[in-house]
Amino acid sequence: MRTKPAAVGRRRPSGRPGVAWFGPFVLLCAPGGRQAGREPCRTSVCPAHKNASGAAGRDEVTGHSAPCRGSHPLRYPVRRDLPDASARVHPSAHTRAFARARGRADARRRASVLRRARTRTSVLRRARATRSRRPSPVRARPVKLIVLGAGPAYSDRAGSVGASYLLVHDDQALVLDLGQGAFPSLVRTIEPSRLLAVVVSHLHPDHFIDLVPLRHYLRYEFEPPRRVTVHAPAGLARRLDALHDEPGFTAQALDVVELAPGVRSIGPFELEAGLVTHNSESYAFRVRAGTGAGAGARGEPGFVYSGDCGRADDLRALIRPGDTLLTEVAFGPGPVPPGAQHLDGPAVGRLAAATGVGRLLLTHLQMGFDPEETIASVRAWYDGDIRFVWPGDRLEV
Ligand SMILES: [Zn+2]
Ligand SMILES: [Zn+2]
Ligand 1: distance of its center to the CA of 204 in Å? Predict the structure, then answer.
């Protein structure tokens, strides 16, 4: 029978091959990562690779260029005789002939890239000129809702992600809530440092915890670090700092602005915040695109998000007839247990009927409740357009 060697659990010196034992597990240590012969792409717009949003060198939402997230074969060969397998031979170690040949190849590649770029530019210029001759549309461009996450605090539903809703208008975006697991969806959809703001409805982790990966991303992916503004109830920075046991942790990448009831402008968005019954400071929001005399004067419908809410009537002050209402319906067909500050289908249905919402989007359904039964319980009170939203959904609101 095999016995434990004396070196159980001890780490091997980094970069050295070997074997380590951890209880019943054997850890084989071998040089990895860069030995595969690839390195991260350092270019801001890489025509050769898809970026985080999946488009070649372009951000999916804004269409702007975004840093490439791909990798390239190592430019110089790996020296496998060194302890660090990623160490490379400096170009000076190559022969002159090799360098000249590489120079010629580089020049040919540069010329071809320039040719392609010139062709693209002239096509774009022609398209832009055609667009500018067309009369501008009377109605403002709608707001696009991209659901990054629609889950509750815990779930057995595959792919469940905490609450997070991206709103895009005129190539500008803000996100309402950033719950557990939402950051990967966010970074696949838009380059996050381009966000106008993150707006947090209340300080329950299923609505804000992925501010931590966002903070790390802004801090470590860019030099100098980039920053994003976060509108949140009082105490957010203190909580994130405490989580990391590091004073100033939040402030290194996030500019936190305290929420208060009322209207504020965020880029092209007008955000109206209203207090709702849930925890000590919880907000629901009405968002519409276009500030000043624009959309409001034309009476265009807005988008209302309930956050978490324990009293449906708290939302009435925010809703105008024709609005799209995205509301939590945590307890499905109901009833909501005493003390649980959430909503159920009948409460949501009565609210929708009383306020004349144009469309009802349901979300935040807790584990164990059936979506179809929930919709039926809402439909008993409201016969308009009802549906659940799920991660990946894209709608105009
Ligand atoms: Zn919640
Ligand atoms: Zn909550």
Answer: 6
Ligand 2 centroid – CA 186 distance (Å): 21
User: For 144-396, which CATH superfamily applies?
Assistant: Ribonuclease Z/Hydroxyacylglutathione hydrolase-like (3.60.15.10)
For the chain, what are the domain ranges?
A: 96-133, 144-396
Q: Cα(203) to centroid of ligand 2, in Å? A: 7
pTM of the model: 0.69
Which residue from 325, 333, 330, 328 is spatially nearest to 380, judged by alpha carbons? 333
Can you tell me the distance from the alpha carbon of 326 to that of 202, in angstroms, rounded to the nearest whole number? 16
Residues in the chain: 397
CA-based angle 147:148:153, to the nearest 5?
A: 105
The pLDDT assigned to 94 comes to: 40
State which residues of the chain have pLDDT below 50.
1-15, 32-36, 41-47, 49-56, 72-99, 121, 123-124, 127-139, 293-297
How many Å lie between the centroid of ligand 2 and the Cα of residue 285? 15
Q: How remote is the CA of residue 75 from the centroid of ligand 2, in Å?
A: 50
| Dihedral sign computed on CA atoms, order 113, 115, 116, 117 | positive
Q: Which ligand is located closest to the Cα atom of residue 328? A: 1
- Residue 75 Cα distances to 42, 89, 113, 259, 376, angstroms: 12, 10, 18, 49, 61
Strands 385-388 and 269-276: unpaired
CB neighbour burial string for 101-116, b if at least 16 within 10 angstroms, e if fewer: eeeeeeeeeeeeeeee
